[in-house]
Design brief:
This protein has 4 domains: 81 residues, conserved putative lor/sdh protein from methanococcus maripaludis s2 fold, CATH 2.40.420.20; 89 residues, Elongation Factor Tu (Ef-tu), domain 3, CATH 2.40.30.170; 51 residues, OB fold (Dihydrolipoamide Acetyltransferase, E2P) (Beta Barrel), CATH 2.40.50; 61 residues. It contains 4 helices and 20 strands. A hairpin with a 2-residue loop joins strand 16 and strand 17. Helix 2 packs antiparallel against helix 3.
Length: 364
């Protein structure tokens, strides 16, 4: 009897659970059937950015390393040996041509000059008397010649001493800036002793080299631009001299240009990046370089036509850092697609991103 009751209990419990689960199963079946019957939504066209082609100036530039060179530079030394008596130069100061820089002791030469001057005065008086006697016929031509020759010899000797005295005053050969001095008063100078450096930095020279295939495009008067690390902006220089031969080791031609340096910020020896325009086009049809896709046998890009993407075979010309000239395959006003290039296919409908203004190159 207990077994019968337990069986009846479990049977009623199972029937109750089945009654509770049946509505949920029916609801789930109807939901799946309804979802299967609903039509699938069509994905929206992909958004792309475009660049509207318009004529613009474009230049092919060549970057070459260069070096700044002082317009004039000299190591100040003494031609004569001697003790430094006075130093007139100031380190880092500007001097004019002819300004005194260093004075060497000249006492010995001054004494020698005074002695020669005294002898010369005596010789000139003697030559004057001999000339008077010769006019009276009292002496021969040879005697007169001996007197005048002695006076001439003393004049030449005096001129030589004057030159040596002048060399005891070391003067600036040109206007410029004096560098750091290497000697002090009382030091003994020899002709090899370096006293200081004198440089002229306005204008400044720019020395650089270009590959020989471009050398024929340059001549004196052509301008180039250059950049110096630590100085904002670009500066201009005008070519004034070209080496008349090609360096066989580098296959380049060396050139020199001059650039104003009124602010004194350009320093001799500084490294420069020289930007050389080797070819310019005033009205080029240029596109962002990312839009041009190389392929076997040529190059192509995608344009927007009637709301759909279409490919165009193109030919290119000048190339800069981020722009490429299209010489064939585009016309003014064409909208070149510059983003989403990987998903494009001919005839694919696309929409233009709102921020892509027609007259503004896109931000890539």
């Amino acid at each position: 009897m207990p077994r019968l009751r337990r069986g009846l209990f479990w049977g009623l419990l199972l029937l109750a659970l089945a009654a509770l689960a049946t509505p949920k199963l029916l609801h789930t079946g109807r939901g799946r059937a309804g979802a299967a019957a609903a039509p699938a939504e069509k994905p929206p066209p992909p958004e792309v950015r475009v660049h509207v082609v318009r004529p613009e100036p474009l230049a092919e530039t060549l970057t070459s390393p260069g070096t700044l060179v002082a317009n004039e530079r000299v190591e100040v030394v003494s031609e004569n040996a001697g003790l430094v008596r006075h130093i007139a130069l100031e380190e880092g100061a500007r001097v004019a041509s002819g300004d005194l820089l260093v004075k060497i002791d000249d006492r010995e030469l001054s004494t020698e000059r005074d002695r020669i001057v005294a002898r010369l005065e005596l010789a000139e008086r003697q030559a004057t008397r001999q000339r008077e006697l010769h006019e009276q016929g009292l002496i021969s031509d040879d005697e007169l010649e001996i007197a005048t020759t002695e006076a001439d010899a003393l004049r030449a000797e005096l001129a030589q001493v004057e030159v040596r005295l002048a060399k005891t005053e070391i003067r600036a050969p040109f206007a410029g800036i004096v560098g750091l001095r290497r000697v002090s008063e009382g030091a003994f100078l020899s002709p090899q002793t370096r006293i200081a450096t004198l440089v002229q930095t306005d204008p400044m020279k720019l020395e650089f080299a270009v590959p020989e295939r471009y050398a024929g495009r340059f001549r004196p008067g052509v301008e180039v631009t250059f950049r110096i690390e630590g100085i904002d902006g670009e500066r201009r220089a005008s070519i004034y001299a070209i080496e008349p031969s090609v360096d066989p080791a580098t296959r380049t031609v060396t050139m020199r240009a001059t650039s104003p340096n009124r602010d004194g910020r350009l320093l001799p020896g500084a490294f420069a990046d020289v930007l050389i325009a080797v070819r310019e086009v005033e009205e080029a049809l240029a596109v962002p370089s990312i839009a041009v896709i190389p392929e076997l046998g040529g190059k192509k890009l995608w344009v927007l036509e009637n709301g759909a993407a279409q490919s165009r075979q193109v030919e290119t010309g000048i190339r800069t850092g981020d722009r490429v000239e299209i010489t064939r395959g585009l016309t003014t006003g064409d909208a070149v697609i510059v983003t989403g290039l990987q998903i494009l296919r001919p005839g694919l409908a696309v929409t233009v991103a709102p921020e892509a203004a027609p007259d503004t190159p896109p931000t890539l």
